[in-house]
Specification:
With 321 residues, this protein is an alpha+beta fold. It has one domain (6-320): B-lactam Antibiotic, Isopenicillin N Synthase, Chain (Jelly Rolls), CATH 2.60.120.330. It is built from nine helices and 14 strands. The chain has helices at 17-33, 46-60, 64-67, 112-115, 132-158, 164-168, 240-245, 300-311, 313-320, and strands at residues 6-8, 36-40, 80-82, 99-103, 175-181, 195-198, 204-209, 215-218, 224-226, 234-238, 255-257, 265-272, 279-280, 298-299. The strands form three sheets. The chain has an eight-stranded mixed sheet. A four-stranded antiparallel sheet has the order 6-11-8-9, with no helix packed on it. Helix 2 (46-60) packs across helix 5 (132-158). The longest helix is centred in the middle third of the chain and has 27 residues, at 132-158. The structure holds 2-oxoglutaric acid and fe (ii) ion. Fe (ii) ion is lined by residues 198, 200, 205, 255.
């Protein structure tokens, strides 16, 4: 009831069918009960994480005007730097005490989808930090592969074709994000969160968090429980698109980040989201006469844009213009 399951996914890197099924069953139980679990046995190395963390520290330490050269509020494709208080994940609370860097699937400006103005399609914006672009590009690809492996296990767990998600996640709108949470001032309002309570918008989120702590997840009784950092793991959670796909068999669970006191916190979520044209509608096997589909079909990109408009003031202004 009060601690999240830890699942060893190493068997997903073998051809052992029975072992795949055992992992799929554990993931299935965790997604139904919690919508949250830790994974270990994944292929992302500790040295990669250390390099990324060092790069994040270098980037967020740059002067504001340098970071704002890639201001996300100026990007048509949701890429680049989000300054403190740009995002307000819980509209009933002050804006989040965090700064962010977002990158997605890189599409050059002359790609037909970009020229056609397809939402969330376009080039990445990278800062002038030595080694940054090659490191992050490689990591994006590795996280994309890891998310596809997990999605294959989820497909198996849901009783659909194991490759159901593969083609739907080609040229995805998945986002790799780096987040810096500065320490909260002791005198600041108790209402102030690093990241306000929210559910994620996409399918699955894979989160690396450093050892500052502060991530909290709501249990079935509505209590906030800590999801502490565990060395070598990622925290995985179901987002709203997967909840819709699974007709809420899989839970998209509220979580938040309490601002650290006295230390900086860095985290790096990868939000796995499909190709923007993917239709999200109740999967076969997730509905029956007693449990009809709860949600109308929606396209991935329309859904994402509607959610951004709830949490980013500048997107809301654009949507209302
Ligand atoms: O920084 C974290 O630990 C979690 C961040 C989060 O929940 C999000 O960005 O959606
Ligand atoms: Fe989240």
């Amino acid at each position: 009831m009060n601690s999240l399951p830890i699942i060893d996914i190493a068997p997903l890197y073998t051809a052992d069918e029975a072992a795949w099924l055992r992992v799929a069953k554990q993931i299935d139980a965790a997604c139904r009960e919690w919508g949250f679990f830790y994974i270990k046995g994944h292929p992302i190395s500790a040295s990669r994480i250390a390099e990324l963390k060092a790069a994040a520290e270098d980037f967020f330490a740059l002067p504001a005007e340098e970071k704002l050269r890639i201001d996300i509020t100026k990007s048509a494709h949701h890429r680049g730097y989000g300054a403190i208080a740009t995002e307000q994940l819980d509209p009933s609370k002050p804006s989040d005490l965090k700064e962010t860097f977002d990158m997605g699937f890189h599409m050059p400006a002359e790609h037909p989808d970009v020229l056609a103005g397809k939402p969330l399609r376009g080039p990445n914006w990278h800062p002038q930090v030595a080694g940054w672009e090659a490191l992050l590009q490689q990591h994006y690809e590795d996280m994309h592969e890891l998310s596809k492996t997990l999605l294959r296990a989820i497909a198996l767990a849901l009783g659909i074709d194991r490759d159901f998600f593969d083609q739907r996640f080609e040229q995805p709108i998945s986002v790799f994000r780096m987040i810096h949470y500065p320490p909260r001032h002791t005198a600041s309002s108790a209402e102030q969160q690093g990241a306000g309570a929210h559910t994620d918008y996409g399918c699955v989120t894979l989160l690396y968090q450093d050892n500052a702590g502060g991530l909290q997840v709501q249990n079935v009784r509505g209590e906030w429980i800590d999801a502490p950092p565990i060395d070598g793991t990622y925290v995985v959670n179901i987002g709203d698109m997967m909840a819709r796909w699974s007709n809420d068999l899989y839970k998209s669970t509220p979580h938040r980040v309490v601002s650290p006191l006295g230390v900086d916190r860095y985290s790096m979520p990868f939000f796995a989201e499909p190709h923007p044209d993917t239709e999200i509608s109740c999967l076969d096997g997730c509905h029956d006469a007693e449990h009809p589909p709860k949600y109308p079909a929606v396209s991935c990109s329309d859904y994402m844009l509607s959610r951004f408009a709830e949490t980013y003031a500048y997107r809301r202004e654009e949507a209302n213009a």
